[in-house]
Design a protein that fits this description.
Elements (H helix, E strand, L loop, with lengths): L2 H22 L3 H31 L1
Helix pairs in contact: 1-2
Length: 59
């Protein structure tokens, strides 16, 4: 696994953790923001993996 993938996964997990903590503390607005941010990171991660696979398949 490349370092950038590891960093992406750790970032997704960290932002997800922040979202859970904010929901538990009753800060739903900030929790929703962190949830949306984690979702955007997840989608970006999936698209990046898909693009890398397409590049290796085309070679």
């Amino acid at each position: 696994m490349k370092l950038s993938r590891v960093v992406d996964v750790l970032l997704i997990l960290f932002v997800g953790y922040l979202a859970i903590i904010r929901f538990k503390e009753g800060m739903t607005g900030i929790g929703i923001m962190f949830t949306a941010l984690a979702f955007v990171y997840l989608v970006t991660f999936i698209v990046r993996i898909k693009n890398e696979r397409e590049k290796t398949d085309n070679k």
